[in-house]
Amino acid sequence: MIEILILYYSRHGSVAEMARYVARGVEEVAGVAARLRTVPEVSPVCEAVADSIPAEGPPYAEPRDLEECAGLVLGSPTHFGNMAASLKYFIDRTSPLWLSGALIGKPAAVFTSTASLHGGQETTLLSMMMPLLHHGMMLMGLPYSEKELLSTQGGGTPYGPTHHAGADGNLPLSDDEKRLCQALGRRIASATQALLAAHAIPSVRS
C-alpha cells in the first residue's frame, strides 16, 4: 500500500478539517492510503513541555514518517503570512533527511487556513514550499481544470487549497474549499502512484 503523509499543525481546528478532506481525496485512489500526523505546540519557555502522545487527534510526526511515505502534504494556519512556528520547528529538524536525500523525488503539496481572506494565504503556501524544494521534492498545486478555483468565494489557489476561517476562526469550510482539498489529495495520490509505477518499469535501451 502506498502511503501519503499529511502533516499539519492546527490551532483552532480548520487546518485539521482540511487535512481530513485531503486524506479523503487520497483514499479515493485505489491502492493509496493517507497517514495523518500533527506536531506539538512550540513553547516559548522550554522545549520539552508536551506529552509524547496528543490528547486527541492523530499522533505526533516522527522523522520516520517522512522516510516511510511516498508523498507529503503539509498544512498550516497562516501566522503573519508565514507557516506556524510549530510546523517550522519540526521541519527545521529534518536536516538528517536532507543529508541522506531521503525525500528527493517524492511528490509534495501544501494547504493553509487564514482568519482574513487576504491574510497571506499565498505567501504561507510559498513559505511551506521552500524547505520542500531544498529537500528535492516535486511540488504539486491545483490546475484550473478544478472548476472550484474559478467559482470559489472563499479560499482556493493554484498553489494549494486554502480556507477563509473568519476573524473568530469559526467559519466552516465551504463546499468549494472541501472539493479543492479532496482534489489535491486525489492529485498527489495519483501522481505518486504513477511515479512509483514508472520507476518500477525497467528502462528500454536501444
In short:
Strand 5 (107-114), helix 5 (121-134) and strand 6 form a beta-alpha-beta unit.
What does this structure look like?
- With 206 residues, this protein is α/β, with parallel strands linked by helices.
- The protein has one domain: Rossmann fold (3-Layer(aba) Sandwich).
- The chain is built from seven helices and seven strands.
- Strands 1, 2, 3, 4, 5, 6 and 7 form a seven-stranded mixed beta sheet that branches.
- Helix 1 crosses helix 7.
- The protein is globular, with a radius of gyration of 17 Å.
- The two termini are 33 Å apart.
- The model has no long low-confidence stretch (mean pLDDT 92).
Q: Sketch the major β-sheet.
A: 7 strands, mixed
Cα-based radius of gyration, to the nearest Å: 17 Å
Roughly what percent helix? Answer: 25-40%
Classified by CATH, the class is: Alpha Beta
Tell me the strand percentage band.
15-25%
Provide the CATH topology: Rossmann fold
Average pLDDT figure: 92
- The CATH architecture can be given as 3-Layer(aba) Sandwich
What is the end-to-end distance? 33 Å
What string gives the helices and strands in order? Answer: EHEHEEHHEHEHEH
Give the count of structural domains.
1
Number of strands: 7
